[in-house]
Every structure is written in structure tokens, then in C-alpha cells.
Design a protein that fits this description.
mainly alpha; 28 helices
Length: 649
């Protein structure tokens, strides 16, 4: 632990007092206090309490019993991944289900209310970001659309009106402003704006509710081919708003809208098939299909209904895993998670890095992959000195902890970081040859409290093998960097079998996944060919003079007579390496030759040292050899070109 100043001690004292009062509140049954304690025991952030996953699980359990949505999410995630809790899809579903209802319930009633999963902005921090100031430029997009809308662009007017209608892109819901922009776009013949006005009049959003006006706008938009207008007409026919109820006409319009991709129409067709409303018969298989189409576009109710049907085996065999994925996604779109994520984002933009870290860490505890990756990024870069009270190794351990969480959910960048950490020997590796076929691969080794083990010893073969395992998983997600690393490992035989053919396949796959990497891949392929050539020459069993001779003969295509005989003896057919003979007999050389003999022995001794160093550092020697090859080749080409030009003159 690093030396702490007076302010750090004051901070710790204040936080210890906070923990004391949280513990008192938890003892009295406060669910929020239980979650806060669970978070502290799980992460150990701040250094106020020691990491203790058993205590974290206990507090999460009581918080969930008290109705805390955050602990519902945390326990659902832990049971889904088997993190310090029995791995169980069914148990995970039981925790995610009440949290997902928090997302579904607000969109059950309204017609106009978008049933899409709005959620939080995909505000992903990455290593490519040079400055947090760039993040503020995202708001410029909204400003641009508003500017274009004010200049009379109908598409921009419709986009801004829709954003105000549902409250997206950082804009608050404002029905009056939304209707104003939609009116302007509809006056220019924008079909989607007409359809949105129809929904506004049908629901009385920003205008006086009027079914006749709603029907007028729906019919106008339908003539222009708007699928949302067809859905609006179908809903009016189905409910009898402004027209006589007509289920047959409603189904006809729903089918038209569904074929054109309206997720609302697809959802309602699924619901009608579940209930068996005439003229449609009850058909769970078709209901599954329509719910699936709507869910694929992000329809919340469709996702929820499809998950319930998959859990109950309606229209398809029971499938817990896909149902769990849908419920998890719905739960992460609840207002509880959105508020935490938006809070973390705002703190980061305003450079309140400590508050941002803690907010992302809390969302990480709830199993939100984006939050886990962002927390790892902040710790990795130590923004604002958020963890200056920790040593470099401890910061690395915390960063790897969050990277492990994100990697376990398929984050490619975190997988690469974990792979690099294994390769560099930053973390312990323990590869068991007796793993169950259905067990998931363990990315890192942790103790019983969840601490990442950072060994002090040097790298071992198991580190390389574990790195290769993680790289394979990232390569399966089409990571060009992982493919390149695997190619390199197969080339040198580190952690995997030495296989030039496989190395070339991985290099080629890298180019396929990332065409912009053509230059680095080309150099890698040159290096691979050079290694193959070296192996063919079997230089391990030759002395350095033969090796030098082979290199010059192959690279420069030497002919007899190019060098003097004191360096290379020239025969009748081809140059042969000269032999430097050093007498081992104890003779008394002439005084004049003593110094030269001693110098020769010294040169040979130093040369042998260089050769031994080269054998141990083959990678460096390869780079040097390639550099020499390029310099000599370019030099020879320049000489030949100059001679050719001279002859032409």
C-alpha cells in the first residue's frame, strides 16, 4: 500500500463512519443499506472494508428480499455466471423477472408510448479516446438536427419531433414542441410525421384528443406507404376508436404493417394469436414467430412475452437460456439502471472521475457489461488520480477485476487485456486438464474473496497456454488482434504447438477481419517465411561462419570472386566459407605475431558470445536480420538501377 497523506486518512475515517451507519441501517432491515454494503464487500473499492464475497452475497440476499432492484440484478447475474453462487438458469430467472417487470409495466398502457427498449446511451469508453472533451461532441448531433429542422428540412423536423415525443437523444419529453415539429414536417408531405401526428391525436399528446383527426392523418400517411399508419388504423378498428369495431379489417391492416416491418403490428398479431381473437385462431407457434420479429427490433412487451412462452414451453420446447437473455436485457433497461448509468456518464463528462467510477462500479455489480468495461478503463488510466492511494500493482488488480467481469460477457477488448495479462505474467494461471465439458472457461485465478492473484514469479508455460485460450475466445468474436497474437504464438511455439501452417492461417484471418492491417500482416508473413527458411537450413547444427556464408549466398546471390580470399575462399564452382584455424598447441609464436593472435582469439570469443545471445533472443535477431535484408536489398537495387541508367546514357 502506498503512503497516504492527511487528506486520505480523513477520507478513510469519514468512509468508515459511513460504513458504520450503513451497518446500523442494515441491521434495522434497510434494503438500500444492504446493497451498499454488498457493493463495498464485493469490490473493496476505497479500501474501507476488505473484499469478502460471502458477506457480499449475504447482504445482496437481504437487499433482494427487501425489494431492492439492484440486488435482484446482482444476484441474477451471479447465478447466471456462477460467480460465488450456484450456477442456475432457473434461479437467475427468478431474480431477473421482478426487475424486468419494472421495464415492462410503464409501457403496457399507452398506444403512442414507444414499446422499444430505450435504455441508456451506449457511452463506451475506449483506449482510442484521446480526451473526454470529445464526448461532449455527441450533443452536436442533436444541435445539428434542430438547426436543419429550423431551416425547413422535413426529415430533420420529423426526427426532432419524434425525439421530443419519446424523450431520446438527451432531450426531455415535450409533447407541445414535438407536435410543432411534426406539423411542419407533415405539411411537407412526410409520411412518418403524419403517422406520428395520428398517434398524437389518438392519445391526446400535445393536442386535444380527437379520433377523427387521428383517422385523417393515418389515412393520409397510409397512402404514402407508412407501415406505422397502417398499424394506427388497425388499432382504431380493433378498439373501435372513431370507427365501428372491425377485427377483420384490423387484422388486414396489421398484416400489411407487419410485412413492412412495424414492430407494433408484429407484437399485436402475436398477442391476437395467443388469445385466439377472431378471425385468427389460437396458435402459439405463430405467436412465437411474431413476438420474435418484434423482439428483434427491441419491442419490450414482445421480448417479455416471448421469454414467458419460452419458459413455459408454449409454441416451442422449454428454453431457459434465451429467456434469461431477454429478461436480463429488459431488467438492464429499468429506470434504476438507467439512472445509475446516466449519472456515471454525466460525472465522467464533467471530470468527476471518482464519482463516475463508483457509479459504473455499482452498475458493474448489477451485471451491466458496459459499466464493467468503463470502470476497468477509468481504473486502467487512473483518471483524476482516483486510485492514487493504491500502488500500481493494486490498481492493476482492480482494473483486471472489472476486465474479467466484462470479458466473461464477451467484451473483446477486455478479453484481449486478460490475454495480454496472462502472456506478460501479470496474473496467475491454473489450467485444469479435468474440466467438465459444460463448464465455462475460467479467465483468471482468484482467491475465495474474489481477488485476482498477481504472482511475483516469472512467466510460465501455463501463462502462455492460458493466454492462448483467451485469445481463441476473442478470435471467435472476430478480433483481428487476437488472431494475430495466435498466429505469432504458433510461429514461435509459445503456449501452443509450433505450426507455421496454422500461423499463416491466423495471419490470413487477421487480414480478413481487419483489411487495414495489411502492412503489419505482410511483415509478419515475411518473418514467417524467414523462420521457415532458417529451419530448412538447419543452422542450429552449423557454426557461425557457415551461417554468415549461407545468408550472403542466399540474399545477395554471390558469385565467385566478389570477396577477397582472406574472407571467403573461392573454389572453381562456388564460394566456400573460409576456415579460421586457431592452433591449440602450446607453441612460442614469434614476438611480432603474439598481439595479432591474442586479438584473433578475443574476436572469436566475443563473436561466440554474440551468437549465444542471438540463440536466446531469436525474436530480436529476426528483426535485425530483416532490417539487414531490407537495407542490403535496397542498396543492391539502387546500385543496379544506377548502372542500368549509366549504360543507357
Amino acid at each position: 500500500m502506498m503512503m497516504m497523506n492527511g487528506n486520505e486518512w480523513k477520507r478513510i475515517d469519514a468512509e468508515k463512519k459511513a460504513v458504520y451507519f450503513l451497518q446500523r441501517a442494515a441491521d434495522l432491515g434497510d434494503a438500500e443499506a444492504h446493497f451498499e454494503l454488498a457493493f463495498l464487500y464485493s469490490t473493496g473499492l476505497g479500501g474501507v472494508v476488505e473484499k469478502d464475497e460471502r458477506l457480499a452475497m449475504t447482504h445482496h440476499y437481504f437487499a433482494a428480499r427487501g425489494g431492492d432492484v439492484r440486488s435482484h440484478l446482482a444476484l441474477g447475474h451471479r447465478h447466471a455466471k456462477g460467480r460465488f453462487a450456484p450456477k442456475s438458469c432457473q434461479a437467475s430467472v427468478l431474480y431477473y423477472h421482478p426487475a424486468s417487470l419494472k421495464t415492462v409495466e410503464p409501457v403496457i398502457a399507452p398506444v403512442m408510448g414507444e414499446n422499444g427498449q430505450k435504455g441508456f446511451d451506449n457511452f463506451r469508453l475506449s483506449r482510442d479516446m484521446k480526451s473526454p472533451k470529445k464526448l461532449k461532441r455527441q450533443k452536436d448531433v442533436v444541435t445539428y438536427y434542430q438547426y436543419a429542422a429550423d431551416l425547413g428540412n422535413s426529415e430533420a423536423q420529423n426526427a426532432v419531433g419524434h425525439a421530443y415525443m419519446v424523450g431520446t437523444k438527451g432531450l426531455d419529453v415535450n409533447y407541445d414542441v414535438a407536435v410543432k415539429y411534426l406539423d411542419l414536417a407533415a405539411a411537407q408531405g412526410n409520411a412518418e410525421a403524419m403517422s406520428s401526428l395520428g398517434h398524437a391525436y389518438a392519445n391526446g399528446l400535445g393536442v386535444t384528443q380527437n379520433n377523427e383527426t387521428a383517422l385523417k392523418w393515418f389515412k393520409e400517411a397510409k397512402k404514402l406507404g407508412s407501415p406505422h399508419a397502417s398499424y394506427g388504423l388497425a388499432y382504431m378498428y380493433l378498439s373501435g376508436f372513431g370507427v365501428e369495431k372491425n377485427a377483420q379489417e384490423a387484422v388486414k391492416e396489421l398484416l400489411k404493417a407487419a410485412e413492412r416491418g412495424s414492430m407494433e403490428a408484429q407484437f399485436h398479431l402475436g398477442a391476437l394469436h395467443v388469445r385466439g381473437v377472431a378471425p385468427l385462431a389460437r396458435d402459439y407457434t405463430k405467436a412465437n414467430t411474431y413476438f420474435g420479429l418484434a423482439a428483434a427490433q427491441g419491442h419490450s412487451l414482445a421480448s417479455y412475452n416471448l421469454a414467458m412462452m419460452q419458459l413455459g414451453g408454449l409454441g416451442a420446447p422449454i428454453a431457459c437460456a434465451p429467456a434469461l437473455d431477454k429478461l436480463k436485457l429488459l431488467a438492464e433497461r429499468s429506470s434504476t439502471v438507467i439512472n445509475v448509468m446516466e449519472n456515471a456518464r454525466e460525472h465522467f463528462v464533467r471530470r468527476n472521475y471518482k464519482e463516475s467510477l463508483y457509479a459504473y462500479a455499482k452498475a458493474s455489480e448489477m451485471g451491466v457489461e458496459l459499466a464493467q468495461a468503463n470502470a476497468a478503463y477509468i481504473l486502467e488510466r487512473n483518471f483524476g488520480g482516483v486510485q492514487n492511494h493504491l500502488s500500481k500493482e493494486e490498481r492493476k488488480r482492480f482494473s483486471l477485476y472489472f476486465h474479467e467481469l466484462a470479458a466473461d460477457q464477451g467484451n473483446v477488448l477486455s478479453l484481449l487485456t486478460i490475454g495480454d495479462a496472462h502472456y506478460a505474467g501479470w496474473i496467475s494461471s491454473s489450467i485444469s486438464s479435468e474440466k467438465d465439458d459444460d463448464s465455462e472457461e475460467t479467465l483468471m485465478v482468484t482467491d475465495e474473496d474474489g481477488n485476482v492473484l498477481v504472482p511475483s514469479n516469472a512467466k510460465s508455460d501455463s501463462n502462455y497456454e492460458k493466454a492462448a485460450q483467451v485469445y481463441r475466445r476473442a478470435a471467435g468474436l472476430r478480433s483481428a488482434a487476437a488472431m494475430f497474437n495466435l498466429g505469432r504464438m504458433h510461429e514461435v511455439g509459445r503456449g501452443v504447438a509450433k505450426d507455421y501452417h496454422l500461423a499463416k492461417r491466423f495471419y490470413d484471418s487477421t487480414l480478413s477481419a481487419e483489411p487495414d492491417a495489411k502492412f503489419i500482416v505482410k511483415f509478419a508473413l515475411w518473418g514467417l517465411r524467414f523462420r521457415e527458411w532458417v529451419d530448412e537450413k538447419d543452422w542450429k547444427n552449423k557454426d557461425y561462419r557457415t551461417i554468415v556464408s549461407d545468408i550472403f549466398r542466399e540474399l545477395l546471390l554471390l558469385r565467385p570472386g566478389i570477396f577477397n580470399s582472406n574472407i571467403m575462399s573461392v573454389g572453381e564452382d562456388e564460394p566456400k566459407p573460409a576456415k579460421i584455424v586457431i592452433s591449440t598447441e602450446k607453441t612460442n609464436p614469434p614476438p611480432s605475431s603474439a598481439a595479432s593472435g591474442s586479438a584473433t582469439e578475443h574476436i572469436v570469443k566475443e563473436t561466440n558470445k554474440v551468437i549465444e545471445w542471438g540463440k536466446k533472443n531469436s525474436d530480436v535477431m529476426l528483426v535485425i536480420a530483416l532490417g539487414i535484408f531490407l537495407v542490403i536489398t535496397l542498396g543492391v537495387r539502387s546500385i543496379l538501377a544506377a548502372r542500368h541508367h549509366h549504360h543507357r546514357d
